[in-house]
Write a structure and sequence with these properties.
Blueprint (H helix, E strand, L loop, with lengths): L3 E11 L11 E13 L6 E8 L3 E3 L6 E6 L5 E22 L4 E18 L6 E9 L2 E2 L3 E2 L2
Antiparallel strand pairs: 1-2, 2-3, 2-4, 5-6, 6-7, 7-8, 7-9, 7-10
Length: 145
């Protein structure tokens, strides 16, 4: 058994109002590989724990991209820039099977897509988490002492 590997994917379609961008908005997508380093029986994590690979940005990437809005008198004007980043965390909990006197680890890697808009009009920057992906992986059962 041993280590488990899989990908987490986060995405968003964002309207930049760029005349050269698709009318439906710009599709942002990021994939991060995850390795959960279990021992052979998947009863404990090794010293590596949970590892995240570097993010892979498909399509137009993660910016910065210019954001436009309508200008007085017609047309569009740049009003700021938008960019994306990701953050990771791991949640670890214990699940019990009381009737059979055993327990196991539940490990949940989490990936968050973070969008940051920086205005050129003097407004403060706006940062928000726009998408979160996670997947809970359960280890092997361990008898209670």
């Amino acid at each position: 058994m041993g280590p488990q590997q899989f990908d987490l994917l986060v995405f968003e379609t964002y309207q930049t109002k760029d005349p050269a961008a698709p009318l439906v908005g710009t599709h942002i997508e990021c994939t991060v590989g995850v390795t959960i380093d279990w021992n052979l029986n998947r009863t404990e994590l090794t010293g590596k724990g949970v590892e995240f690979l570097d993010p892979f940005w498909s399509g137009p990437g993660n910016g910065p991209m210019t954001v436009y809005d309508e200008a007085i008198g017609g047309g569009t004007q740049p009003v700021g820039t938008v960019s994306w980043s990701v953050a990771t965390q791991v949640l670890k909990s214990v699940e019990e099977d009381a009737p059979n006197r055993r327990y196991r680890w539940a490990v949940t890697p989490e990936l968050q897509l973070i969008r940051k808009f920086v205005s050129k009009l003097g407004e403060p920057p706006d940062t928000e988490i726009t998408y979160t992906a996670s997947d809970t992986v359960r280890g092997g059962w361990i008898p209670k002492p």
